[in-house]
Amino acid sequence: MQLIEDITRFIEDMPRIIEGLPDVIERMAHGFMAMPDTERWAINYGLFLFGAIVAAFVKHRRRVMRRQQYFAFMALLVLAVVAIQAIWFFVLEARVGGYLWVLAAINVVSMLLFGWYSYRLAKARSLDIIGNENHAVFAVLPVLNLLLFFRKSKSDVSAVQSDTPPPQIGGPGGVTGFTALIAAVVLAVFISNRLDDRPILLAPGHPMESVAKLKSLLWTEDLSKVLQLIAQHTPHSVYVDEATALLHQKASGQMLIRTYVIDTADYPSHTDELLQAGLFRAAVEHQICSYPHLLLLLKEGTLIREIFDDPDGNRLAHYDITQRSCGF
Question: In CATH, what number is assigned to the domain containing residue 285?
Fold first, then answer.
């Protein structure tokens, strides 16, 4: 009976699980981007290695590949992988738009395929060197993989020839390889420089830049820590309109407390009527739910408490704004 109840509950929760799956994947993508460069390189190498391992256990048609052919195809493969790194030009837009996971997925697939095809080419090269595929393992070992480029063929004429297009055979293969390799290096330098300049393209304070940073921070740090940072770095006594000033912000756990002072002398005489009719609360909710930064905080479970006092410190009103206030 308990098993049936558990299955029924799981089926009932399935729509909610599926609905929340994109956010889970997006969080993982933000976590990947927040890692140090060395850790990201380690993960990429792990993906490359996994693709190579799969290729090692999958049987392919036995083909032989000479040195220049192998050099040409590997250089073209490296060029393709480098070109794919241009996807990171769109990382800020992806963070704001909620599709950073797409870029991360493209990166994962490209590394897996890089490992897969590198090992397949290494198998063909190993057959040409020693007559079996044992040397293919060098493809995943830095420095040792150079043996696949420099070792001579076992015989002048191999028993099995690869169906390599003419531009990669003999002398043209070397030309193709060096051309692709030079293009890969130039493209890698260009992409690296552009990515280094990317933060300058969106100056601090730019809406897209600040929303992207907040989203990344929320998905890589504890919510209470993020709220503390917001409270500490928010200017005090900032006027939001002619009569209302944001006095200060405080953080308490997963609550952000924002205290305002309303200059009742300049405020409309029907302030009390607005408060009693609930129109003031509706206006506050609308303002918060329309502000991208606060909306992100609410989606992560923040409770925003809006407190309104008069200049003498008397409490006029306070409202707790939650996810439900904004309709989700």
Answer: 3.30.300.250
Can you spell out the DSSP letters for 247-290? Answer: EEEEEETTEEEEEEEE-TTTS-TTHHHHHHHTHHHHHHHHHHHT
The model carries a pTM of 0.60
- Region of 157 (left: φ > 0; alpha: ψ -120 to 50; beta: rest) is beta
**Closest C-alpha to 98, from 303, 328, 296, 294:** 296
| Furthest CA-CA distance within the chain | 99
Q: Give dist(CA 201, CA 195) in Å, integer.
A: 10
Q: What is the pLDDT of residues 202-224, one digit of tens each?
A: 444 444 456 667 776 777 778 88
Domain boundary among 152, 182, 210: 210
Please give the Cα distance from 325 to 328 (Å, whole number). 8
Closest-CA residue to 126 (of 115, 116, 137): 137
Q: How many domains does the chain have?
A: 2
Could you list the residue range(s) of the whole structural domain that residue 293 is in? Answer: 221-326
Overall average pLDDT of the 177-196 stretch: 86
Does one domain contain both 302 and 261?
A: yes
